[in-house]
Automatic annotation (TrEMBL):
Lineage start: Bacteria, Pseudomonadati, Pseudomonadota, Alphaproteobacteria, Hyphomicrobiales
Domain spans labelled HD: 483-605
UniProt superkingdom: Bacteria
GO molecular function, one term: [protein-PII] uridylyltransferase activity
Listed PANTHER family: BIFUNCTIONAL URIDYLYLTRANSFERASE/URIDYLYL-REMOVING ENZYME (PTHR47320), BIFUNCTIONAL URIDYLYLTRANSFERASE_URIDYLYL-REMOVING ENZYME (PTHR47320:SF1)
Organism: Microvirga aerophila
Catalytic activities: [protein-PII]-L-tyrosine + UTP = [protein-PII]-uridylyl-L-tyrosine + diphosphate; [protein-PII]-uridylyl-L-tyrosine + H2O = [protein-PII]-L-tyrosine + UMP + H(+)
Domains (record comment): Has four distinct domains: an N-terminal nucleotidyltransferase (NT) domain responsible for UTase activity, a central HD domain that encodes UR activity, and two C-terminal ACT domains that seem to have a role in glutamine sensing.
CDD domains: ACT_ACR-UUR-like_2, ACT_UUR-like_1, HDc, NT_GlnE_GlnD_like
SMART domains: HDc (SM00471)
Protein name: Bifunctional uridylyltransferase/uridylyl-removing enzyme
Length: 916
């Protein structure tokens, strides 16, 4: 008896024909399914033991070859024998696609071509149909085509996808002469004369695919198959190389002159790693999952054996390895494109979009002995350019920026090969550092040039501190890019602001940029603000040390270096203050101003903060955040200038009342005085003039209509928020009910201001992040939220049941652990205790926290809600029922325990849900 499971399956079928196809399938499929499962289990065990992705996919491909052959032989032997086949009863079974390359991931499709001599016959149609039914019964995803040689060539000439499929065709079994004829004619009739068309089509196809999957190769949830630098990019390189160089195996690319032996070893290393990750991904998820989402990254890191080291967790080290591989794939892509262009197999390149607006020159000189303009790009005159003068490794990129030209791939390739020339002497060379500072602070497109330096490996070698964060991801849902990509994008945003672009998004920054005196310090600070990420100590403090070290090296003065260090140390201060503190509280502004001290620092910090937030990722910057930053800036500007902030509190209240009186000319003085007396001084000091007038009319109309509970809403497209105003009798659980109703209706609260009138009515403003682009859609949503709040306040619905029914388990957040923290501070406000709560975000969290605060008999004066991906930071300004701060240590400890229990209870419930 054979040890081959597929041979045993055929032996068990015997030699006699079977009655029908259904009988064959019933006898054949169970054995094949068992052999298939056994083979996959063996492949997974081998992968876990030896960590070789290519070995795994080749093993699975070989197993599939044997299975398909077994199905064919069973069908031909037992259902449709052809003892004396005619010329029409010839068939070749051919593997195509990834399967044609002899690689098959656990969840991949099985692509088959049933090749015929000239047309389909009853015999071939029956054989193919019977084979497919067996494969489908095995639950395999089969892509198939039945064509003659002529049909293959005709459709391949017209369709680039079919042409690519034929390029990868691999003979399995059947009539070998048919397959040989197809390949010979395909090479002669199609490939030989269409290389440029094929290359052009494949590169355009790649651009479209990458744009769909996410344009940056540094997205923190990458697509292993279709993302930039993924497996499909390597496939594309090999397709192009096969087509142009007419090779069959990757190893032949060295002999063909496309790759050096070292570059081919890099190609092989990238291919094996990406296959390894993809196989682990398919096995771990049990499906053809191609995206490395947060919830599987930790699982794959553990399967691959990545452990914590040097301040990075195991998953962060694994993802850094992944991003370095995708960077290497990008290098290989540039090499192939350069070689193809040299052979004129590739159409004239499309230059970088950002550089495209500048002038183009076909050739010329640069007044430099080592460089020239080669086909609109900066190139070296000889391969000894960098060896002769290592400063040229920086000068290459400086020239590209100065002349607004891209760099020739040959020069980039040589720079990457010459990285060993970048040592301490070059790093401390004054000229090299002067050139780098020129690049960094350029008014052209420093983002593009810095990215080219980074991709070539020059930036990380020239600045080793930057090299440490190359390809480093932060395992959270807030940051969309790796740290190095985030820093480079920050420089791009800074350049946009200086150029006056996107003034509608950040008008104040555009306005003040021209008045900034420390421009060089600002650019360096933006470049360095996150450079110490991934270290055990706080990255702002560690970054300050790095800034003090690099400033003099770059050629900055002592004062400039001090400014850079201060900005790096405090680069999160303005964002955190604006988003999580009560900006109407004088203590907030005073505390912030004491750190900032000067108007110049305030300007620098504002611009740096905007660049930092905008470079985090798409959708992170909002008009609401911009408005908060502008409010903080203007309040601090007044205080630093010794202006109106010092005005007596009573006088400021009087001025606010006078402004409102002027806005309400139709009110009698008696009516106005009665309304003004209902509000505390805090109301007049904290609300802006426009909101005061709207609320006065809102309260008047509600009371005229006899409504004790009333709501109104409006959108603010510029800030990207929707405001809800609620009038209701006050009680301790009021804010909890409002936040619960918002959570149940899908409203995401970002801020809340709460006021109580002297006659016991609450006048609260709730700010929601905008969900729809169109005002009419957003207003309809706001109406639903407002009606939900009214029903809850009137007792028509039980808010706890409503919220609990809207608590979906967020799959993506399950991958994260955010230790909950509660801090209680009495120094941040003159009148209230500030409670800051942070932990893992979830639906209904704000409701749970405000409910807990209500049960603790705390009055909430204002709430400020910030979400950083999976992490929520909620800040509440509270007083005891007597209106005083919470100062007793025992009372504070009780508050802390109760709020931490909100997280612990949910964590326990989540664990129970997962185990169930």
């Amino acid at each position: 008896m054979s040890n081959d499971p597929f041979a045993r399956i055929l032996q068990h079928l015997g030699e006699q024909p079977l009655d029908d196809a259904a009988t064959l399938r019933s006898r054949l499929v169970p054995g094949l399914k068992a052999a298939l499962d056994e083979g996959k289990a063996a492949a997974e065990a081998q992968l876990l033991e030896k960590q070789n992705g290519l070995a795994c996919v080749r093993y699975l491909s070989d197993q599939m070859d044997a299975l398909v052959r077994t199905v064919h032989d069973a069908v031909v032997r037992h259902l449709y024998p052809a003892d004396n086949p005619s010329t029409g009863e010839r068939l070749a079974v051919v593997a195509t696609g990834g399967y044609g390359r002899g690689t098959l991931a656990p969840g991949s499709d099985v692509d088959l071509l049933f090749l015929l001599p000239y047309k389909q016959t009853a015999w071939s149609e029956s054989v193919v149909e019977a084979m497919l039914y067996v494969l489908w019964d095995l639950k395999l995803k089969v892509g198939h085509a039945t064509r003659s040689v002529d049909e293959c060539l005709r459709e391949g000439a017209a369709d680039m996808t079919i042409r690519t499929s034929l390029l990868e065709a691999r003979f399995l079994f059947g009539d070998r002469a048919l397959y040989d004829t197809l390949i010979e004619r395909f090479d002669r009739e199609i490939v030989a004369s269409t290389a440029a068309d094929f290359v052009d089509a494949k590169l355009k196809e790649r651009d479209a695919r990458v744009a769909k999957a996410g344009a940056s190769r540094y997205l923190v949830e990458p697509n292993v198959k279709d993302g930039k630098g993924g497996l499909r990019d390597l496939n594309t390189l090999f397709w192009i190389a096969k087509y142009v160089y007419r090779v069959r195996e990757p190893e032949e690319l060295v002999k063909a002159g496309l790759f050096t032996p070292e570059e081919f070893r890099l190609f092989a290393r990238c291919e094996e790693f990406l296959w390894r990750v993809r196989c682990h991904l398919h096995f771990a998820t049990g499906r053809a999952e191609e995206r490395l989402t947060f919830d599987v990254q930790r699982i794959i890191a553990e399967r691959i054996g990545s452990t914590a080291r040097g301040g990075l967790s195991g998953v962060e080290r694994f993802m850094k390895s992944y991003f370095l591989i995708t960077k290497d794939v990008g290098d290989l892509t540039a090499i192939v494109c350069a070689e193809l262009e040299a052979r004129q197999a590739k159409r004239r390149p499309v230059l970088d979009r950002m550089l495209g607006r500048f002038r183009r020159r076909r050739g010329g000189t640069l007044a430099d002995d080592d460089f020239l303009i080669d086909n609109d790009r900066i190139n070296v005159r000889s391969e000894t350019a960098f060896e002769r003068d290592p400063v040229n490794l920086i000068r290459l990129f400086w020239l590209a920026d100065r002349h607004n030209l891209p760099i020739h791939p040959d020069a980039t390739r040589l720079a990457t090969r010459s990285l060993s020339l970048i040592g301490p002497s070059l790093r401390h060379d004054p000229e090299a550092n002067r050139l780098f500072l020129d690049i960094l602070t350029s008014k052209n497109v420093p983002e593009v040039v810095l990215r080219r330096m980074n991709e070539a490996g020059v930036l990380g070698r020239f600045i080793p501190e930057f090299g440490r964060i190359v390809a480093m991801m932060q395992f959270n849902m807030y940051h969309h890019y790796t740290v190095d990509e985030h820093l480079i994008r920050s420089i791009g945003v800074l350049t946009e602001i200086e150029a006056g672009h996107l003034g509608n998004e950040h008008p104040l920054a555009n306005q003040i940029f021209g008045t900034i005196r420390n421009r060089r310090a600002l650019y360096v600070a933006v470049f360095l603000h996150d450079i110490a990420k991934g270290r055990p100590q706080d990255h702002s403090e560690a970054g300050t040390v790095i800034a003090r070290k690099l400033g003099p090296r770059f050629g900055l003065s002592e004062a400039e270096t001090h400014t850079v260090a201060w900005l790096v140390e405090h680069h999160l201060l303005m964002s955190n203050t604006a988003q999580s503190r009560d900006l109407s509280d004088p203590a907030t502004i005073k505390s912030f101003a004491e750190v900032v001290q000067t108007m110049e620092r305030l300007k620098l910090l504002l611009v740096l903060t905007i660049a930092d937030i905008k470079a985090v990722g798409p959708g992170v910057w909002t008009g609401w955040k911009g408005q908060l930053l502008r409010n903080l800036y203007h309040e601090t500007e007044v205080l630093l200038g010794g202006g109106v902030s010092d005005m007596a509190r009573s006088e400021r209240v009087r001025l606010a009342q006078d402004q409102l009186r002027a806005e309400l000319p139709d009110w009698s003085q008696e009516m106005f005085d009665a309304y003004a007396a209902r509000h505390s001084p805090a109301y007049w000091l904290k609300t802006d003039e426009t909101r005061r007038a709207k609320q006065a009319r809102f309260v008047k109309n509600a009371e005229k209509a006899g409504r004790t509970v009333s709501t109104c809403h409006e959108t603010d497209e510029f800030r990207g928020v929707t405001e809800l105003t609620i009038l209701s009798p006050d009680h301790p659980r009021l804010l909890a009910i409002i936040t619960g109703a918002c959570a149940a209706a899908g409203g995401n609260i970002v801020d809340a201001q709460i006021f109580t009138t002297t006659d016991g009515m609450a006048l609260d403003t709730i700010v929601l992040s905008r969900a729809f682009d169109r005002d009419e859609d957003e207003l309809r949503r706001a109406e639903r939220v407002a009606k939900g709040i009214e029903r809850a306040l009137k007792g028509e619905v039980k808010i706890a049941d409503l919220v609990n029914g809207k608590r979906p388990v967020k799959e993506r957040t399950k991958a994260f652990h955010v230790p909950p923290e509660v801090t209680i501070d009495n120094s941040l406000s003159n009148r209230q205790t500030v409670i800051e709560v942070s932990g893992l975000d979830r639906p209904g969290l704000l409701y749970d926290l405000t409910t807990a605060l209500g049960k603790l008999n705390l009055n909430i004066a204002s709430a400020h809600i910030v979400t950083f991906g999976e992490k929520a930071v909620d800040v509440f300004y509270v007083t005891d029922l007597t209106g005083t701060k919470v100062t007793h240590a025992g009372r504070q400890a009780s508050i802390r325990r109760t709020l931490l229990e909100v997280f612990n209870t949910e964590e326990s419930a989540s664990s129970q849900r997962r185990s169930a």
